[in-house]
Amino acid sequence: MEENSKSISNLPSEIRRIWYNGEWHYSIIDIIRYLTESTNANDYWTKLKARAKTEGFEETLNQVVQLKLKARDGRFRLTDTANRQTVLRLIQSIPSPKAEPIRLWLAQVGEERFEEIEHPEQAIEKFRQRLQAQGHDEAWIEERIKNDLTRNALTDEWKDRGAKEGTEFAILTSTIHEGTFDISIQAHKKYKLVPTRANLRDHMTHLELALTSLSEATAITLHQDRESQGFSELKQDAIEAGEAGKEAREGIERRIGRPVVSPQNHLEKTKSQQRKRIEGQQQPSLFEEFSEGEKE
Fold this sequence. Notes:
alpha+beta
């Protein structure tokens, strides 16, 4: 059992997955690559689909869904994915001694996700612990958690009201952000000197986070009050939510006498903490010196 657990723990980094329609969908190519160690998993998948017609599992292929997953070059591309039931059927057609560990892993990640849905406080606590480990203060962490909850509620609204995950979600997000801050998400990242692939929200100040939450909460309210449906109506709401966020930002800036958009980022904070830690090691406190003397 320990050996299987070790194998399972190695799988998530190799097999991409995405939450879609209430369940995990897994990259079929990644699974084939893991099971067969093939240098050409795409070719193997093509041959497997051809075999499906003669081996009686062609219906299984109808359950395959193309979803956008991040490729090795960092870009999102349409990828053949399948839910756990479909993946397990496909595994039966791929002879491999690695099949059992992947079955266990599929069950494990599915169970973990359902536990998070049934007990969201557990997911929040994990999120809190990650932020604490990064060195954020408690007040910022509370704001970041509130922001994450608002964001999740907003994307749920978009999904329920007909927006497509991927491109349309990205456009709506950018519309709200640019409306609020008068700067694109990428330009905002560049201003803060954070990596392109980093989550901008993990580097925002208290005010930036609060305004992001305000604008997105406004979008939720507009969607619900207007019963908006479809991308065009949702985008109009996003435009107006961004305008509301901009009005709030400009009011704050008049009060504080400086821009809300800040070059401050978490990377600087981390470096500062590391520097203090090193200095602390080089210059031990009197208590530490006393303790060392006693030991001698």
